[in-house]
Amino acid sequence: MGDSSAAYIHLVQRLIEECLIFNMSKEECMEALSKHAHIKPLITSTVWNELEKENKDFFQAYLSGRDERASVIEKRRIQRNDVVGRAQQ
């Protein structure tokens, strides 16, 4: 692999790490990198998949945490809507 190819893959990896900091899913990351860094989704997906293979424990915890946070957010949204609905009655 040439130096420029390795540097490009390293850049994509670093950008994926930024996506992880912002709690993005793989699909959200692919979309963001395509839109803002002009990186093809296939490249982002390939690098993401390799990172997942190399860091199985991290990604299992990351994805589990995302699911838990999404569940908590949804419960809060439902509770907020219930409170607003009762207040309007």
Describe this structure in words.
This protein starts with a helix and ends with a helix. The model has no long low-confidence stretch (mean pLDDT 87). The chain folds into two domains: 54 residues; 34 residues. The chain contains four helices and no strands. 88% of the residues lie in helices and 0% in strands. The chain is elongated and about 65 Å long. With 89 residues, the chain is mainly alpha-helical. This is Angiotensin-converting enzyme 2. It holds the Pfam family A_thal_3526.
TL;DR?
The chain is mainly α. The protein has four helices and no strands.
Ordered list of secondary-structure elements with their pairings:
Layout: H1 3-21, H2 26-37, H3 41-54, H4 56-88
- Secondary-structure-based class equals mainly alpha
The percent of residues in helical segments reads over 70%
Number of E-state strands: 0
By DSSP (H or I, 4+ residues per run), the number of helices equals 4
Strand-residue proportion: under 5%
- Uncertain stretches of 5 or more adjacent residues: none
**Ends distance:** 66 Å
Oligomer designation:
single chain
Q: How many separate structural domains?
A: 2
Query: Mean pLDDT, rounded to whole units?
Result: 87
What characteristic shape results from the CA principal axes? Answer: elongated
Radius of gyration: 18 Å
Largest sheet: none
Question: What is the element string, with H for helices and E for strands?
Answer: HHHH
Protein name: Angiotensin-converting enzyme 2
Pfam families: A_thal_3526 (PF09713)
Organism: Hibiscus trionum
InterPro entries: CHP01589_pln
